[in-house]
# Entry
Amino acid sequence: MLSHEQNERLVRTNKGTEMGELLRRYWIPALLAEELSGPDCDPVRVQLLGEKLIAFRDSDGRIGLLDEFCSHRTASLFFGRNEECGLRCAYHGWKYDVDGNCVDMPSEPPESRFKEKIKQKAYPTVERGGVIWAYMGEAGRMPEPPALEWATLPPGQVFVSKRIQETNFMQAMEGGIDSSHVSFAHRFDISDDPMHAGTPGLAYLKADTRPRFEVIESDGGLLIGARRNVDDDQYYWRITQWIMPWYTIIPPFGTHNPLGAHAWVPIDDETCWAWSINYHPTRDLTEAELASMRRGEGIHAKYIPGTYRTQANAGNDYLIDRDAQRAKKTFSGVEGIAAQDFSLQESMGPIVDRTKERLGTSDAGIIMARRRLLAAAEDAAEGKPVPGDQADHHRVRSTSVLLPKSEPFQDGASDALMVRPGEPFVSI
Amino acid sequence: MLSHEQNERLVRTNKGTEMGELLRRYWIPALLAEELSGPDCDPVRVQLLGEKLIAFRDSDGRIGLLDEFCSHRTASLFFGRNEECGLRCAYHGWKYDVDGNCVDMPSEPPESRFKEKIKQKAYPTVERGGVIWAYMGEAGRMPEPPALEWATLPPGQVFVSKRIQETNFMQAMEGGIDSSHVSFAHRFDISDDPMHAGTPGLAYLKADTRPRFEVIESDGGLLIGARRNVDDDQYYWRITQWIMPWYTIIPPFGTHNPLGAHAWVPIDDETCWAWSINYHPTRDLTEAELASMRRGEGIHAKYIPGTYRTQANAGNDYLIDRDAQRAKKTFSGVEGIAAQDFSLQESMGPIVDRTKERLGTSDAGIIMARRRLLAAAEDAAEGKPVPGDQADHHRVRSTSVLLPKSEPFQDGASDALMVRPGEPFVSI
Amino acid sequence: MLSHEQNERLVRTNKGTEMGELLRRYWIPALLAEELSGPDCDPVRVQLLGEKLIAFRDSDGRIGLLDEFCSHRTASLFFGRNEECGLRCAYHGWKYDVDGNCVDMPSEPPESRFKEKIKQKAYPTVERGGVIWAYMGEAGRMPEPPALEWATLPPGQVFVSKRIQETNFMQAMEGGIDSSHVSFAHRFDISDDPMHAGTPGLAYLKADTRPRFEVIESDGGLLIGARRNVDDDQYYWRITQWIMPWYTIIPPFGTHNPLGAHAWVPIDDETCWAWSINYHPTRDLTEAELASMRRGEGIHAKYIPGTYRTQANAGNDYLIDRDAQRAKKTFSGVEGIAAQDFSLQESMGPIVDRTKERLGTSDAGIIMARRRLLAAAEDAAEGKPVPGDQADHHRVRSTSVLLPKSEPFQDGASDALMVRPGEPFVSI
# Structure
């Protein structure tokens, strides 16, 4: 439960807001690399943290990410001509390079030097892991490029999708941090998943339906441990990594399946991008796995063709199937892990009123993530360093392990929680 | 004509508003009984007076009407599992009984007593006349259950429908109180209706197109009398009952047809439920009558399948047919009594600006109903009794009668205006 | 670039605003004459400068333009019965003549004189050039009727269309004033147009792509001259007329084609009517020309059937065709001159934020038009005369001519810039 004022601080991300300025300290997943198909491709509209932008690759393949609206009379550069190393506004022909320089102004006399005074807002980008990332913060504070394991693997080992969610990013991310809901919202999906069948983890999970949660700070975010009783001596631990400001990694069952991860990025304060990633640290994804992911299965979602909007949405009550709910095929009647999450999260309204919550012990991860974000936002406002902006903070894994009851989970699992490039991950 | 401030007092019905608190002193028609199909049925969203609620029948058939949003993290209980005597939130499994008690909290440790501190908002209900009614006011002030004649007859004698109207409830109800408009908006429907053919009432109605209105207070609301000249000695009186806070009964032609009645209930301040009821005090409705009502004829409406929204709506100009208007098949070009009313009422905007009206003598019923509601709202704010909350106030009928010119209509028709269970009603 | 306050003064047009009161000093194109098909036709909703109105022809063919909402209880007169020299409200039968007099009030007793106190707001109209014009200002200040050349020609010489644009009227009109954008947004349409082929003007236009602009005040608005180098001695001048408050005439190529003109009229502050007119001063339009205009070609637009909304619109990204853009069939990827304009103008948002512009020398026409409108609005507020309200201000033409470099364009082209009824216009 937060005060109204705390809630506002947490959810507002436009330029000039406290949280918005914190988020601008990080590299931001902006669009799928494939959305910019190649040199002189179609310009693509992108909205991030309330700012409307236009992305393109120029004739040399360099990525431009500019203010969507031309400096001249604010027409959209969506209609621009992407040619000869720059994007030319379709209204009066002003042309910008990827750095936002106005390189041609044909509506003015040839001797005019007006164009030298014009600078279109432009943000730096990097391309990694099939994603184009943007840095929207102060030039002098740009962090190391994203080093998340999935962003650094060979392309064949990673699958990335994104979808639009009709909520604030925090509300979506809280679902990723909150491993407690898995036992309910996803109960029948998890327990019936043939991919998990036979793993000891699944057996432990089913044997103790009331896990205890322990949450501790990591260098870059949080470690959220859920422990279950196995016997007199051991706990079964499922440990989720939350990496500031918006990344989560799902604890796996066994090591044969790809790992799952997410990022939750504000479009504006009432919509966000939900990024979903599957990756395997030591092998290519199989054709069968990729086909399933492309169909929108697992943590991915089924789209309305030609959009990143989901087929299941508020307009159709998320295609709820009450018979499937009664038959215990799905817990909520909604099909698919992603849709189960976003249907519930969107049902709270675009910005949940956190003054009305009643939080329990199982909400410890959410409570601590909020605290850490609010504290970091204060630090950012004072120009201090912030967690999660260093490459080392990114090089972490989630895991599931058996540990002696006496051993703190962060110690017992310390090796399993680190990325060791090329080495198998640990999970039971 | 009202001041802006008076208009605001009249139309605002959220919790804490003066009118909202008055309306919470009454039983509120909440949903059709058939919408909750039986024990452990699908939960149904209900919005009343601005409050979003969820309705269900539990395993024992008891009706629950709870705050739609779970006390834990405010996910909608629409996705909840209705099973084993309670509704369980699909997000983390918190479960509520029909009284709003949290009866299970599986996300917390077994020894936790947190659930005892949780109380989901829950409103009492009664089921009568094919309708589930809710009481949303203070516990100590609950009135007698609804005793309207149509709510107390055997099921075979009653047909109830409801539709969504895109206006404030007052604007819709004023149409029900205002019998003057019948001679215009519904002229060709009334005069051509074979059901009325041959009744003396219809002949008198046609013979004098400019009735005089007399409105007097009844115990529970108003008696709105419209008188027409018959001869030197007699008036033909058509007398409408308005029962506080939102019920009307239409004066009949003869006694062979079912009676008609309405209720107008706020969903929020810009939409309302228009309830339409046909009933016959002394006989079952015939199959032909029921079939016609189910087709949306008479005072009922034709729906977009699967919804309570009408086929004729603002998006299609209410299917206006200018040829039918020219041919005097319909007065406004809109077909059907209900659509004729709501098309005109919605055309005023969702909340009519009553500072712009110019009211005449024929608007006396509307003027007095507003006064009575505003006065009762003040009384309610002071904790005083309010009209229309007693069973006796409900046991009334509308009528049409011939009376000597010298006789006040409320005296001459006093018997006809009372419900006499099992006895025929009076109408010419 | 304007201050926020200046921008607000420029774009707000409701009754009581400074610009709104200026615009009410002029005759306003209200609807196509054909929309009111004849005596006792269907009433048609019209919104102008934020006011909702209803238009009809009475039994004698006289045009009525009334407040849409009945004085009685504010139901829309759209549902009214247009019969026997008046429009009768469908709710309670109040009837108005074209002057707004309440000529029948059948809901009140016959002896009532209440109707004499009722006056429905009614605006005078004139019908000219296939258009019904309204005067919404003070009775004592009504200007001479519109005398634009296209409004005074025989019907066979004129074609008029209108479409809804989702922007403030100023934003749309600025596109009409701004002849600089033609070289970009419409480049391939102009240069490939077989209608212009072989005219000297087109050759000069292509030879010098960076015209200089000179803008001077005319009696009724502005003369916007764009000059291009031809040789050592001569300039090629293209001269656009802007007539206060919202008319433009496009400079022609040669004299064989019809002329083009526009009017931009506020519906409300976020939408406007874009009127497009083709006319030839000395001959009838041909069947082939009319067929093309009816298909929405040239300056006209293709409609969604049964509406004045365009097929290309924000909901479908204006049917952008990136292949056509790459192939240099269209500059912006959008097909059609009208759609090229409104796609860019709507992309700025419904009311462009003029504090963010960076204007150059080619924007001189826009800058001066804004100044003249703001100054005239101040004059209007002080009850002074305003430019553009006299018939002589309307009797002007645009032109394209060769002039000696030493000659001011307004002098050299002075004859060509005047309407000479029945005489050919001048253009190369």
Q: What stands out?
A: The first helix of chain A runs from residue 4 to 11. Chain A has a mean pLDDT of 96. DSSP finds 13 helices and 18 strands in chain A. The first strand of chain A starts at residue 27 and ends at 32.
